[in-house]
Amino acid sequence: MTSESEKDLTNLDRLNENIAKMEELTQRLVAALSRRQPHDPGLHGPGHDLYMKAAAAYMAEMMSNPAKMLEHQVSFWGKSLKHWVEAQQALQSGDLRAPEDPGPHDRRFKSDLWETHPYFNFIKQQYLMSSEAIQNAVRDIDGLDEGDKRRVEFFSRQIIEMMSPANYLGTNPEALKRAVETEGESLVRGLENLVRDIEANDGELLVTLSDPEAFEVGTNLATSEGSVVFRNRMFELIQYAPKTETVHRTPLIIFPPWINKFYILDLKERNSLINWIVEQGFTLYVVSWVNPDASYGDVGMETYVQEGFLSAIDEVRKITGEDQVNVVGYCIGGTTLALALAYMQKKGIKSVRSATFFTTLTDFSDTGEMGVFLDDDFVDGIEREVSEKGYLHSFFMSRTFSYLRASDLVYGPAIRSYMMGEAPPAFDLLYWNGDSTNLPGRFVVEYLRKLCQDNAFAEGKMELLGETLSLKDVKLPLCAVACETDHIAEWRASFDGIKQMGSRNKFFILSESGHIAGIVNPPTKNKYGHYTSEAKMAELVPEEWRAGAEFHEGSWWPRWKAWLARRSGAQVPARQPGGPDHPVLAPAPGTYVTADPNA
What Rg do the C-alpha atoms of the chain give, in angstroms? Predict the structure, then answer.
């Protein structure tokens, strides 16, 4: 029979073994980090000008209005001192319960130990007080223009998020508890996960969000039946097999963004917009964009319009024999679709009957949270990066979007993976999120300079293929879907762009939720509702439209289907993929979606 002391020795031996394993893994970690290539500092943080402006504004505030600055400090000192006294009194009385914690409740601190253990509760409350004090001080700085102030606030939040006690082993009770319970094995697994991620990204740290072995595109993701019926250097055109005996005469083409891959619209059958559209009796084509490498360095906005949008429209008309098609653009696919439609209007090309825009920005006067990355210090760094390599590596876009929601997409997953030693979850949406793409160098610069910084399209000064384009040139019937909590394409900015388009027939839908969940919102879930209004957009600002809009339970998909059906013609026999001049080249989801240009 084993004594307690023998068990303790066994546990200690196992703990020492795991510590030794961690030391060995540290050598791999150092080797992995050494593979990291230097990048332009403009891609890694705000420029020195912003720091200098913020520091100068703070010092000026101290000199001109010291009372306001001291008020912030004294308030923070008072709260901290009161909390310290309460904690000391509790310990002296022998009551090891934490002082009363009024909140706010924060999912970073979901373990009971953050509430009940005096040490961890003290650290948590001090962190929350400090966070509040920093945010208040930054918010009250005068002397900065609105853009600089927004950037200072954003990067201050990034620092606050980074300094959360939940992010560090010594101040995370859940991680410490798990390490003790597993005799250090959880930390070994966590370090293995960390080394794996750094090795996989050439020395950069990018947290694996989803189990990479759980999914395979074409096997259990992007499985809707269809065929590649056309291919050029920019895209593969997928035609989906019909599921009804008859279909609407006018075919539909979806242009997804090329910042990510198209199968966000076809994750699984139960939440696949692609599958649902086919079931509603439409002949559906989807563009699957190429994932570019350095050889695409010369590809700009004109190439995407000419060899992408215009080419896809022409090929679908040839396959179906129809004079017109309906089109959908999602995110940057919608932005560039609007450019293509404006160009077609200028050239008198009438091959599109109606257009739908999902979460699309065309007026960049307010770029929302993304605006913090659009000043010259960042864009200059990106321009130098792509001029050297010919393309912007997918790593940069992945990291940028992740830090817009750092708690959910950076620190939370890092804690679970690296400190708790957990395997990444088998989550299809997060798998897609990690399956990111590169961007052609010329396109990146044109998009950031002309559209984002100069706002040339909304200003009526966008030069493209020999024409000067304006939002007013988009004149065909259109539907736009924006999302209420979208942090990439803010719904008010989307509204303002659609409002300026020249169409007399506009239908605007505001979906609940964000950039992805608000779009991938099947009727079967009945999860997120949406708003519509009969009011004229031209006569309202976004807040007025929202105040007068009617709320509807459930998905917007059926409402959009009814709008689209009225513009899709009579029923004709269902069409099978391809045709005499368009043989099937590959089964869906095609070859471009799985190709890795970084391999």
Answer: 27
Dist. CA 163–CA 154, nearest whole Å: 15
Question: Identity (one letter) of the amino acid at 269?
Answer: E
Burial of residue 22 (CB within 10 Å: 0-12, 13-18, 19+) is middle
pLDDT band at 1 (very low <50, low <70, confident <90, very high): very low
Residue 197, C-beta contacts closer than 8 angstroms, at least 6 positions apart: 205, 206, 207, 208, 417
Q: Which of 203, 170, 175, 213 is nearest to 28 (CA)?
A: 203
In the block, residue with structure tokens 């610069």: 445
d(CA 165, CA 126): 10
pLDDT surpassing 70 at residue 78: no
Q: Quote the CA–CA distance of 191 and 419 in Å, as a whole number.
A: 8
Q: Going along 375-437, which residue ranges are E strands?
A: 391-392
One-letter amino acid at 550 equals: E
DSSP code of residue 371: G
Residue 424 tokens read as: 């990444």
* Nearest residue to 491 (alpha-carbon basis) of 350, 384, 369: 369
Query: Looking at this protein, which amino acid is placed at residue 432?
Result: W
The whole-angstrom separation of Cα 259 and Cα 253 is: 18
Q: How far apart are CA 306 and CA 465, in angstroms?
A: 9
Residue 395 CB coordination number (10 Å) = 17
Q: Which residues pair with 506 in a beta bridge?
A: 478
- One-letter amino acid for residue 152 of the chain: V
Query: Are 386 and 433 a contacting pair, CB within 8 Å?
Result: no
Identify the residue whose tokens are 């396959």: 319
Question: Where in 89-170 does DSSP place strands (E)?
Answer: none
Rounded Cα gap, residues 71 and 130, in angstroms: 14
Contact partners, residue 155, CB within 8 Å, separation at least 6: 45, 46, 50, 372
CA atoms within a 13 Å half-sphere pointing along the CA-CB vector of 365: 10
Tokens linked to 595: 């190709």
Report the C-alpha gap between 518 and 593 in whole angstroms: 23
Phi-psi group of 455: left, alpha or beta (phi > 0 → left; psi -120 to 50 → alpha; rest → beta): left
Tens-place pLDDT, residues 133-148: 888 888 877 777 777 7
50 closest CA partner among 133, 183, 147, 124: 147
**Exposed, middle or buried by CB within 10 Å (0-12, 13-18, 19+), for 12?**
exposed
- Cβ distance 417 to 194 under 8 Å? yes
pTM score, whole prediction = 0.85
- Which tens digits make up the pLDDT trace of 441-466? 999 999 999 999 999 999 999 999 99
Q: Are the C-beta atoms of residues 288 and 258 closer than 8 Å to each other?
A: no
3 state SS of 179: helix
Tell me which residues are annotated as active site. Answer: 331
Half-sphere exposure of 312 (CA within 13 A, CB side): 33
Please tell me which of 27-31, 36-40, 104-108, 405-409 the model is most confident about, judged by mean pLDDT.
Answer: 405-409
Residue keyed to tokens 């509760």: 121
- Number of residues that make up the chain: 599
What 3-state class would DSSP assign to 373? Answer: helix
> Which residues, 6+ apart, have CB-to-CB distance to 27 below 8 Å?
none
Task: List, in sequence order, every residue forming a beta bridge with 406; answer none if it has no partner.
Answer: none
